[in-house]
Amino acid sequence: MKKILVTGGAGFLGSHLCEALLKQGHEVLCLDNYFTGSKLNILHLMSNPFFELVRHDVTQPFEVEVDEIYNLACPASPIHYQQDPIKTINTSVMGAINMLELAKQLNCKILQTSTSEVYGDPTIHPQTEEYWGNVNPIGIRSCYDEGKRCAETLFFDYYRERQVRIKVVRIFNTYGPNMHPNDGRVVSNFIIQALRGQDITIYGDGSQTRSFCYCDDLIKGLITMMDTPDNITGPINLGNPTEFTIRQLAEIIIELTGSSSKIKFLPAVSDDPQKRKPDISKAKDILQWEPTVELRAGLVKTIDYFRNRIE
């Protein structure tokens, strides 16, 4: 049994990670300030004697004795991270520093959940880990994009200069139960609109692409990465390389929900990437990992979750 700290543990992915680690027989300390996370996501874990919940903001130092740290704390949807952009970049940067300092003090492994947003609106397709990105440093999405890029810089500087045992993964679009109903991400938006019979709103002409990874697959990738030897640092892309247009996603969700919703096109939003598809060659080679849940199967589970939330 290991004692494992999960920051952002009451969030969408954090809650799934806490549950998976508990199932493996570990002791889990969940840290969250509930800016976007919710106690509802981890309510079913509260009776587990090996699960502990602490309300804390990672922008402030935190001291605890643990064997591993998963750093997931940061709002990840445009609506939430643009709500308080200074808070967002503070969470990425100061949160990284505080968790890296803790990992250095404890000499424990620490995993950073970075993002495909470090690639910006990419000029190469699919995106490999060697690609440096095409990011607007002063746009409305920059607080998240550049915050995550700076966090990666900090992780590798702590690795080179202070011998901190780091792991960095870049997460591509992930979906599943426990997503916030109003987080503004495309999957949750479309499902909620379809279940309510509202117009499904697409910003732009719907030809922009995304690759959607089901949460269970992603969590397996995170845990597998953490368990690698110290010389494997990443960054490694984690995502589903099967690419869909936003319009295709809307049509599939309308079909699976049996909704009468119509698709409505609105003006494109600023700095919205036109293509997004991970090259997961490194994940396959190094981690022997690749996603197994097909989009329709994952959407059925996600739709059931949101249907119950609405009811």
C-alpha-based Rg, rounded: 19 Å
Question: What strand line-up does the widest sheet have?
Answer: 3-2-1-4-5-6-11
Can you give the mean pLDDT? 94
Helix content: 25-40%
Give the SSE order as H and E letters: EHEHEEHHEHEEHEEEHEEHEHH
Structural class: alpha/beta
Question: Summary?
Answer:
The protein has 311 residues and is an alpha/beta fold.
Write a structural description:
The protein is of the alpha/beta class and 311 residues long. The protein is 39% helix and 17% strand. It is built from ten helices and 13 strands. It has helices spanning 12-23, 39-42, 78-83, 85-106, 142-162, 186-195, 215-226, 246-257, 281-287, 295-310, and strands at residues 3-7, 27-32, 51-55, 68-71, 109-115, 166-171, 174-175, 200-203, 209-211, 213-214, 236-238, 243-245, 263-266. The strands form four sheets. Strands 3-2-1-4-5-6-11 form a seven-stranded parallel β-sheet, with helices on both faces. Strand 1 (3-7), helix 1 and strand 2 (27-32) form a beta-alpha-beta unit. The protein is globular and about 55 Å long. The N and C termini lie far apart (39 Å). The mean pLDDT is 94.
